[in-house]
Amino acid sequence: MSVFSVLRSKLIKFSPHLMEKQERCKKCNIKCGLIKVSPDVLRSLEDGFQKLSESDSKSLLKKYLTRQVFDELKQKKTSFGSSLLDCVQSGFHNHDSGVGVYAPDPEAYVVFSSLFNPIIQDYHIGFGPEHKHPKLDWGDISSIENLDPSGEHIISTRVRCGRSLEGYPFNPCLTEDQYREIEEKMIKIFNTMTGELEGAYKDLLTMSKEEQNKLIDDHYLFKEGDRFLKSANASRFWPIGRGIYLNNNKTFLVWVNEEDHLRIISMQPGGDIASVYNRMIEGVHFLEQNLTFARSPRFGFLTFCPTNLGTTIRASVHIRIPKLSSNKEKLNSIAEKYHLQVRGTRGEHTDSEDGVFDISNKRRLGLTEADAIREMQDGILEILRIEQSFH
Ligand code: ADP
Ligand code: CIR
């Protein structure tokens, strides 16, 4: 590579507007073929592709990264300088990934659409390339029922959504200054929260290990050292810019700069999903008075992981179902039929402890917020009906 082309690609990476006079690609309408992918990156791509092909990985990445798609995409870059390697390296390193891809910046969903589209269609159950995410609709909260009024099975309920701030790329492209800038912006807003949402922000940089571990064990804080995120280049400068806002009742939380710029979370003991959902909406309304969230006409709210696009809603219960827990096949078949996802007690990629599962809606894209909540509610009610029918 000549000195000139190295300089040019560096300049373009930091100043995408320099590409303005260049031609746009006919397929993705982005200047995706103009910055050369380096021989090192190409070698890592070929090597990773070969190893994944020979593995018994069940990831969606392995399923959809055919040789043809790989050859079509391996030379492309977004105007942020992201290559195919930035999208797939988590799945290349972690063959036990369920999905295996992340979008390093918002353009990646378009430039690498031949890979993202089929993965999105598979995960979000039928959201095809011709589909558009519907308009935001929180729905009628008064129609949502308590999932477990007797309090016998549901330990707690949580609803979260993810938000990216317009004007910033995702984790792998954020600079150290941008991490600090986002955090500072958020602290100013958190300081103005009142009423039920009033609380305090704690940054990870100055938090003691004891406090951090207690918050993780109590299910408030994100875990440390997620290997899927780490190999996606999403943990650079950790713990700079990362932290958690907690209201005084510990029922409303905001994660800053973990997987997404923001995760807005509401949770409480029991099965009163209407109260939990309502509080999360209140928090979102408050934050959006002060921030602009990145939203695409096709994908809805934009997130780092394609599994979170659209509504970005994950509504979950921690549920004790001893009978179904000893009949995993039955539990999985109900989950599949009702579009639910079963996770372990400490979140994704963890095991169930004491027969407690985290069960939530699976898809978030191609349906409204109200539909996502309804889908979770219908599935959980069916699980409880079946659990109670075993005597
Ligand atoms: P997400 O992708 O929604 O952020 P994770 O699977 O990473 O979720 O889990 C984050 C944390 O939230 C974990 O500690 C997990 O146990 C906790 N959590 C998820 N659902 C519930 C729930 N219904 N009640 C209590 N904690 C929950
Ligand atoms: C995987 O493929 O298993 C991980 N990359 C996680 C995928 C979805 N979860 C997430 O975004 N937290």
Tell me which ligands are bound. adenosine-5'-diphosphate, citrulline
Question: Helix amount, in percent?
Answer: 25-40%
Radius of gyration: 21 Å
Question: Strands of the biggest beta sheet: in what spatial order?
Answer: 2-3-4-5-1-8-10-9
Kindly report the oligomeric state of this protein.
single chain
How many separate helices?
Answer: 14
CATH architecture label name of the largest domain: 2-Layer Sandwich
Q: In whole angstroms, how far apart are the ends?
A: 71 Å
- What form results from the Cα inertia axes? globular
* SSE string, helices as H and strands as E: HHHHHHHEHEHHEEEHEEEHHEEH
CATH class of the largest domain: Alpha Beta
Q: How big a fraction of the residues is strand?
A: 5-15%
Fold-level CATH name of the largest domain: Creatine Kinase, Chain A, domain 2
Mean pLDDT: 93
How many β-strands, per DSSP? 10
Tell me about the biggest sheet? 8 strands, antiparallel
What structural class do you assign from the helix and strand content?
alpha+beta
Structure notes:
The chain has about 400 residues and is α+β, with helices and mostly antiparallel strands. It folds into 2 domains: about 5-125, ATP:guanido phosphotransferase, N-terminal domain (Transferase Creatine Kinase, Chain A, domain 1, Orthogonal Bundle), CATH 1.10.135; about 140-390, Creatine Kinase, Chain A, domain 2 (2-Layer Sandwich). The chain is about 35% helix and about 15% strand. The chain contains 14 helices and 10 strands. It has helices at about 5-15, 40-55, 60-65, 65-75, 85-95, 110, 115-125, 175-190, 210-215, 225-230, 275-290, 320-325, 330-335, 370-390; strands at about 155-165, 200-205, 245, 250-255, 260-270, 295, 300, 315-320, 340-345, 355-360. The strands form 2 sheets. It has an 8-stranded antiparallel beta sheet. A two-stranded antiparallel sheet has the order 6-7. Strand 6 and strand 7 form a beta hairpin. Helix 2 (about 40-55) packs parallel to helix 5. It is globular and about 60 Å long. The termini are far apart. The structure holds adenosine-5'-diphosphate and citrulline.
